[in-house]
Amino acid sequence: TTPVETLEFQSEARQLLQLMIHSIYSNKDTFLRELVSNASDALDKLRLETYRDKDLEADTSDLHVRLEVDKEQRTLTVRDNGIGMNRDDVVSLIGTIAKSGTAEFLTKLKASQSQDSAVAQDLIGQFGVGFYSSFMVADKVTLVTRRAGEVEGVRWESDGDGTYTIGPAEDAPQGTSVILHLKPADADDQLYDYTSPAKLREVVKRYSDFITWPIRMAVEAPAAPETAAATPEADGEQADAEQAKDDAATPALETLNSMKALWARPKDEVTQAEYTEFYKHVSHDWTDPLETIRLAAEGTFEYQALLFLPSRAPLDLFMRDTRRGVQLYVKRVFIMDDCEELVPEYLRFVKGVVDAQDLSLNVSREILQQDRQIQLIRRRLVKKVLSTIKDMMANSPETYATFWSEFGRAVKEGLLSDFDNREAILEICSFPSTHDEEKPTSLREYVERMKEGQEHIYYLTGDSRASIENSPHLEAFRAKGYEVLALTDQIDEMWIDSVDGFDGTRFQSVAKGQVDLDTEEEKKTSESERAQREKDFATLLSRMSASLADEVKEVRLSARLTTSPACIVGDTHDVTPTLEKMYRAMGQ
Ligand code: ADP
Ligand code: MG
């Protein structure tokens, strides 16, 4: 067999471990949530694996999580009999951090750490550190694991200080045991005694109650009831005594969690705190969700969904390989993570669970893509998410503002891909505008403020708010008191060209084509004056046209400028300068 080896953590992993050891994250209890969450995932994965692979030699007779305490050794063990890991799994899953965005995370962390540890905590909360949170409470962690269907077990051990040992484990049972060698007791020990069953019971109840697998812990056998001794004539006294002795040898097991799937419980029976912990379990996020959404359908095609809008965008929201989708369950049985068929890409930040009652447990990705029921659920989820955001906009503008600054750029992608919901998406968008420096405006508000005689929703695209504000294109609009939207996101350049308008009012760029701002009356009175000016400037214009022939199509007199002498205007169907820059960057 392979000998025991000492290996190094990948450098990102090492940095995160350092953080955990020095425990800048104040709520230590969360380590247990993370370990139980991993154990639960491992049980889900095993059950799924046995559906897929009938030949897998695995024991699924009593899937559970178990907590074991050794007061003398000061150890706490979190054990599951789930999927387990082989050597390669352990090295890649525990020794490295594969999460996309890790590098950026660490850069941010480094920048913030010296100044403000609250910011660092905040970042950890955003990133989530999973298994490594063990090192908040333990100075050494031993992991013994065996992958279901494989023969050889693995023993991994580390004190979190840069290296770990890994080698074979004799007689490892199927699944994973994480043995925490708890740090020495300190002044806080009353609060953080993880060898105390009462403490563990409380923490499991608070963070992991909804886990659908039993989380068990041995409890002291209850003292034999006094009445037994007081009634010696009772039948079967002998047997009772025997039983009591047995109980003392194999202590009773208590199940600490209620195991009820939150999405199946009546709405008014679930507290926000329970939703929050569930969110953290499914999303691997450490921050509270911004919004919780429930929906259900009954009848021939029954399903329940419990969805969440996070309060912060993940670091990889705009990376190519970002994971998306919600968890899919069928009749309470976990089927898959990241079910992309249930949410469109522009809502990739939505987290949660869909539990469908009428799908087969063997459902595959290929089937899902064509399944009519899945398409129906997806359509409803989208509508529900969009209407939730709309309500948020109306009823809690601050929450909406947070949402929009985190996810607005992603939502706007939907304007290009989801034609059915285009109007609904436009309704929930907001944009910086010349109306108010601080506060972005919705299109509805813009339209309500439109001046008499104003026909279009005017906008200008650009790199930044400042460059837009300083643009000579705005001058005439300012003079007229017309509001102009300042579209600064790259995505704006793309959707604005393919969306005609909002609720019957067209979008019009202030930098394209002939923008006619005069009213009919003004036109009449200035007709002769204009003709005179054309004549006056004819020589200048033709001379400029000739000398700029290679750069511009035409040089013309304009009424749109008030203080600047000249500006460059695009044709109605021209690509804007920003978009041109983008195409160039993409090599097109
Ligand atoms: P996350 O759960 O967010 O993926 P963790 O740090 O908690 O991150 O765990 C890293 C990975 O290690 C998990 O994704 C899983 O593949 C593996 N793992 C952790 N604990 C267990 C376990 N008890 N059984 C099997 N695999 C596990
Ligand atoms: Mg985890």
UniProtKB/TrEMBL annotation:
Subunit details? Homodimer.
Q: Which NCBIfam families match?
A: PRK05218.1
The record lists ATP as bound by: 34, 38, 80, 85, 99-101, 126-131, 176, 365
Query: Which parts of the sequence are annotated with region: A?
Result: 1-365
Name the gene that codes for it: htpG
Q: Which CDD domains match?
A: HATPase_Hsp90-like
Q: Which InterPro entries match?
A: HATPase_C_sf, HATPase_dom, HSP90_C, Hsp90_fam, Hsp90_N, Ribosomal_Su5_D2-typ_SF
Provide the organism lineage as a comma list: Bacteria, Bacillati, Actinomycetota, Actinomycetes, Pseudonocardiales
Q: Which HAMAP family has this protein been placed in?
A: HSP90
Output a single Gene Ontology CC term carried by this record.
cytoplasm
Source organism: Actinoalloteichus fjordicus
State the SUPFAM superfamilies in the record: ATPase domain of HSP90 chaperone/DNA topoisomerase II/histidine kinase (SSF55874), HSP90 C-terminal domain (SSF110942), Ribosomal protein S5 domain 2-like (SSF54211)
Segments for region (Disordered): 224-244
Q: Where in the cell is it found?
A: Cytoplasm
Q: Which family does it belong to?
A: Belongs to the heat shock protein 90 family.
Query: What is the protein name given in its UniProt record?
Result: Chaperone protein HtpG
Q: Where is the Histidine kinase/HSP90-like ATPase domain?
A: 27-186
A Pfam family this chain is assigned to? HATPase_c_3
Function, as annotated: Molecular chaperone. Has ATPase activity.
Gene Ontology MF term list:
ATP binding; ATP hydrolysis activity; ATP-dependent protein folding chaperone; unfolded protein binding
